Amino acid sequence: MYSSAPEPGVQSSKHAIPAIDLRSDTVTKPSPEMRRAMFEAEVGDDVYAEDPTINRLEKRAAEIFGREAALFLPSGTMGNQIAIKLHTHHGQEVICEERGHVFNYEMAMMAHFSGVVPRTVWAEDGIVTWEHVKSKLRTKSYHAAKTGLVSLENTHNMAGGTITPPAVFNEVCDNLHAAGLPVHLDGARVFNAAVALGVPVGQLTAKADTVMFCLSKGLGAPVGSLLVGSAELMDRGRIYRKALGGGMRQAGILAAAGLIALEQGPRKLTEDHANARFLAQGLAQVPAIKIDPAKVQTNILICDISGTGLSSSELSCELSRRNVLANGVGPQLIRFVTHLDVSRDQCAQAIEALTSICASNVRYFYRADDK
Ligand SMILES: *Cc1c(COP(=O)(O)O)cnc(C)c1O
Hints:
By secondary structure, the chain is of the alpha/beta class. It is 43% helix and 15% strand. It folds into two domains: 9-29 and 267-370, Aspartate Aminotransferase, domain 1, CATH 3.90.1150; 32-264, Aspartate Aminotransferase, domain 2 (3-Layer(aba) Sandwich), CATH 3.40.640. The protein has 13 helices and twelve strands. Helix 1 runs antiparallel to helix 11 (252-284) and helix 2 (52-65) crosses helix 11 (252-284).
């Protein structure tokens, strides 16, 4: 597995003109409306559950997801790890997809904090079916650790923003519940899935026992994620949030931006998805780049650049010289993420930049051959 971090930028943007930043949707900046709401936010001490703005955000999130309760968190990682802690006991296993965020990009916290080991499945396009899970389940034995939880991801980040079809997801959940096992959904970008499918997010995620989603990505808030589930689970979750250092006092300042992200962010995602398809169609025209635009469902696309003869770090370095930022997510895989701070026009410029790199790269090879 390639070890480059997918979310934090491997390169920083120090450009005179604002860069076309396609590294991640985490780079979105709060809107003037969010900043105004932050300025005016009513606050209190959230460790005492006395921050009215956080309480409002948690109530709205619970409503939208059709749950009893929600918990506001500084990050999605904390939400996923609290969920794993809530559902498992030390010495158990968690089944997840091989490229999943909970396994690869959360600092081995499932082992560190919950004392569980991941048991991975590899699923085409990151779409985990009941068939994948069934063969990996382990019940009580004197040899192998027991399965404690299945943690799924929708959309699947490292599989290219892919959507798990609702019927597939529901079948996994129903079978696991029948086996007495819980399901957690890493829904960092679950609003992207819901918007692309045209299904209410609460309906799409109804069968998961807990759902984490991020306000700080495509929805545009500066900070924050939520975990939703039963009142009992969220009540216990508050204890783990405090233990992890996530008791945030007057964080209504953040929740104020989060409320705007939650109410208004989802409808803007359609444009990000259209821009991602536009980008994919443009990149598919570049001979050395391999990408199937038909597989681009949401705001993430991952291109195979092996045809360029460049490594992903060489290519992302060439791109950054042309003011376009994108991260390598494998030795010859580059990921592009569209979001509300990248326009259609800037996507066209990114296509041009890649086209020109590939063209000059080909000339270089011809010159070498001429000798
Ligand atoms: C971003 C992300 C998270 C959470 O990330 P934080 O940076 O901790 O907020 C979790 N899962 C997936 C799939 C993600 O893309």
